[in-house]
Structure formats: structure tokens, C-alpha cells
């Protein structure tokens, strides 16, 4: 691409009033989230950017690595393992974590993928999935109320009517939803629902190895996704975690992944990790939902759109 085109399109993007509003609203969302978790006893920790351990994810992305003093570091795709380690040592933690997931070009079509984004990543020692879901429901109710009262003029400018959801949010078991609505159940339900809802009990093959397998239903995980309504799609994923060395080793094997790649987390777990549960909320996806924007790039000043060049 010609250098001037890149500069011109960035300038046009940044001069777009909707983008400016979304960035302003996002600043308030970040402040609200930080205050919410601090008030609930969570400690904010700094993010990790490079590390030999990061999230394997359950879908393929381009995977750059940095050779540094003979050690292979990757860029953080999520801080899942660092969260588990910190939950053990500190209890309740959160971080605004920049994630790099160099998505393949077809992800551009979804309108909700950026190759660089931030998630507020949260973990709590000894927590159950249900406790964390309750916390998220409180957060979503409080945040939408806050936005409707404090950001009314911005939402009006964006022509956004934001519903305050009522608790408890509706829950669909993954396999039940798939049976009723077919493979595309998530987007079908997202399109039909008026309030955020949960997909729970996700089968093992659909998720990474670190979410805890149910004791009563082998092959089903104690995890959850929060799906935004009105077609906005997935906004959060999380669950209870495997923390015993032998169970982590077995799950890595069942996923067909290499123990070598995860030797550090296996070594840490051999000293004892703690049971914990947590989740991550994509800040740009949350902003897109709150602002009612079609495309996620309008929530970011310097969006890295899959398959496109950008500054
Ligand atoms: N942050 C998510 C979690 O806590 C993991 C992810 O981003 N893939 O489960």
C-alpha cells in the first residue's frame, strides 16, 4: 500500500465523530471496570507482553516468536497461565491485558475481530464458575445503568438504545443449543435475544485445555461464554481451571498439544497451583456493544484489522 493512503485513511478514521465518541465512551468503560473490580477486592496487576507461555487458543492464528538469549518468547494471546499463577499467590486479580492474535484475513468479515486488542482479564482463587457469572451479571447491569445515566448524550449521538438487562441472565447448555438451532446457534441466538445471555458446559474439543472438566460429566467443561444480544456475538469467555499437574498433562495430551510447549506451566503446577475461576472481557467488543457499532474497528484509534495493513 502507498504510504499516503495509509496516512489518509488513518486521519479519516480519527476524524470520524462516531470513532471519537466510541473512544471517549471506552475511556469511561475502562474507568468503570477498574473501579468495579477494585471495589470487589481485586488487585490490578500489570500486563505481560512477552513470555515463553501463552494461551494456545482453540483456533489457528499466525504465531511470531522472539528469540532472546536463547529462549523462545511469544506475544501474549491471553494471560491465562499468568492469571492462574497470580490467583494462587495473590487471590483476586485483574489486568488490562493487550493481546496479539494475528488472525487470518477471513476474520475481517465478522466485524468483531482485531489482531491487537485489550481484554480485562480476571481470576479469583477458590471461586466457582457460578460465582464469577454472578459477578459479571452485576457488572453488566451496573455498567449499562451507568452508561444510560452518565453517557446519555453520547449514546443519543450514536443512536444507541441500551437495554438494562435483568438478572439472572438466561443460560443455554452448549449441546442443547446446538441440537435446537444447529451449528450456527451462537449467532442465531445472539440475533434473537434482547439481553446478554450465557452459553455454558462447552465440550472439551471446542475449548483450550486449561478449563476444568466436569467431575460428573466427562468431556464437558465447567466454563462459559457471555454472548451479547442484537447480533453482537461473543464478548467474554472463562471458566474454572485445571490446576493439578497430572490433569493438565492429560488435557494437553488429549488436545494433541506438546508437553514441551507447556513445560513451564507443568513445572509450576508441580509445585502446586490453586483452584481458581476467571474470565476475560474484550474491551473493544464491549465498547462496540455499548455503542451499538457495526464494526469493531470504530472502537479503536489504531485498529489492526485482519488481512489489512495499518499504522
Ligand atoms: N481470558 C480468557 C479466560 O479467562 C481466555 C481467553 O482469552 N482465551 O478464560
Biggest sheet, in brief?
8 strands, mixed
What small-molecule ligands were found? asparagine
Helix content: 25-40%
Low-pLDDT segments: none
Strand order of the largest sheet: 1-5-6-11-10-9-8-7
Percent in strands: 15-25%
Distance from N terminus to C terminus (CA atoms, Å) equals 11 Å
Radius of gyration: 19 Å
Number of helices: 10
Shape: globular
Summing up helix and strand content along with how strands pair, one would put the structural category as alpha+beta
> How many extended strands?
11
User: What is the residue-averaged pLDDT?
Assistant: 96
The ordered H/E elements are HHEEEEHEEHHEHHEEEHHEH
Explained architecture:
The structure is a single chain. The protein is α+β, with helices and mostly antiparallel strands. The protein has helices at residues 3-15, 17-39, 80-90, 129-150, 152-157, 174-181, 185-192, 245-254, 263-270, 283-291; strands at residues 43-44, 50-51, 65-68, 71-75, 92-100, 116-125, 171-173, 197-200, 223-228, 233-240, 276-282. An eight-stranded mixed sheet has the order 1-5-6-11-10-9-8-7. A three-stranded antiparallel sheet has the order 2-4-3, with no helix packed on it. β3 (65-68) and β4 form a beta hairpin. The radius of gyration is 19 Å and the shape is globular. The termini are close together. The chain binds asparagine. Residues 55, 78, 80, 119, 121, 237-239, 278-280 line the site of asparagine.
List keywords for this structure.
three-stranded antiparallel beta sheet, 10 helices, globular, eight-stranded mixed beta sheet, binds asparagine, alpha+beta
